[in-house]
Amino acid sequence: MTVRSALYDYDDFEECRRTYRDKYLYCIVRAHFSPDDESLLWKNLSSYSEHPFRYDRRIQERGICVPDCERFSQGVQLSDASGYDEDDTYVDLFRSCINLKLEKHYNIRAGTNIEIVHCYSEATAHPSYDYMEILFCIIFGQLLVFVCFSTWADLRIQKDQRFPKSYFSRSHTTRRERLLTSFSVPRNIRHLKSPVNSAIRKELQFLESFRFVQIYRVILLHVIVGVIKAPTVNPESIEQMLSNPAAITYVADFQNYVQTFLSISGMLLAVNFLEHTRKNPNFSINYFWDRLVARIIRLVPAYLFIMLLEVSINRRFQGGPVGQHFIGATRDKCRQIWWINLLFINNFLHTDQPCLIQMWYLATDLQLYAFSIGALMLIWRWPVLKKYVFAAISIWGLGFVTLIVYVRSIPPVMTEDLKLSPWYNFGHRYFLLYQPFYTNITVYFAGILAGFLYHRYRESRQEVLNSRFFKLVFYTLLMMQFFAIFSVSWVVRNQDTLHPILSAIYATGFKYNWGVLSTVIQLQTALLPQQSRFRSFFSHPIFVVLGKLCYSFYLIHFSIILQVVGSVKQPIYYSVRGVVSIQLT
Q: What pLDDT, on a 0 to 100 scale, did the predictor assign at position 2?
């Protein structure tokens, strides 16, 4: 007798729509099998499903062409195509259809727990426009008008000035001209490619390439997460892939991408702060509010636009019932908890089923930014506190975070729990360590310390680069990173037998080691001589342009993944080639 049943079983959606035309109704249903302790298959399914790297095979997701279901099933007749989400008639009908196949192929039955996830019909395929969609169209139309008018005005001014050399690289002298050309396409493109205008910014250009590399890796993993959530004809391939040591290491390493971002943010914050205090030595509390407001103004407009896109017009691109799993579910959740995102507290509230899975990082980063500016203000006002601030952060990172992991029984590393795949793995207990700003302070302050060291030694670089202590720290962290990479698969497979204290220590070390190592690499690269090939390569103008676009990539990438994966109408075949294809899309 087979150990596994079909996890996904979809009727042909296009055939259903062609056959019944305007009268078609297609529903996605999750059926929980009825427990049967005397059934060998049930016992095998239960045993098989206990492993976190496996789907719950006691649940089957069915895509049902409702008219066909009514025609072939025995029992309840379908009376009306409306009210499917409230009428128990549909539950009885779907149970009957599901059991016809289950009994024929697996000799097992669906129980009373039948969940109607979503139904798709001609009415849902072409819904009427609501106020959010109208608002988006108005705002998008206004932006198009601004862009066209601003570009026309800029070209007109260029013509009036008789096409001066490097026209788009120069700022206008009057406030009126600057306002008129603020949305100019050629001017903004040129601004992306414009060289930096200070020695410090030029030396730190390579950070843009570091940021872009991590963004690309984030997008790749989010593509995999999206594919894992999608219905597949070969879910066992995903199960086998995730149990592979290389895949375990890859998923566990995901939190290191965030540590790199935080380290870069901390380093740039410190350098900018120290440059400000050098030019303005007198303490001013206004610096805190000026920087915080500037940060929010930079983040919110594009963030708000993407949020509005998600809760409005995005559903128009939903081409079939599977799209509701992705586009529709995100839209519904964002309409419920949009305010949590805009208050930047979505890393604390509703973390198990978020609106846009990538946006928690913006909340964490802003909280760390505000906290760190406050700490730097204390150091500015009372310089003697500097060593105590850094010492306190180090103790917090090494001691209290370990205690948090131990007390709350947090797993040592991130893993992909396939039973959480409908929620993109959110709800995993490791997120208690992954998302809060207070568990990420240490690496952020490592970046701030690197900024202090860079600012202090940029005129005497060799003093740091030739330092035995600096080399010792670098090679020690490097060896620890190799140890972490090669040990994480074993730790994941044996975490249930590890002593809780050892697990907590490992979790803290794994979380922080790459972040601190990345910080040391950033500091070392910043202090390299100008002719260094390594720094020159990562400071290439193409990386600078891509780095400036990273925030836009970060905001929009998951919406694109939802559109691509959610556009499928039947279970897909999982393969590495398919993942790469979606990534390139």
A: 47
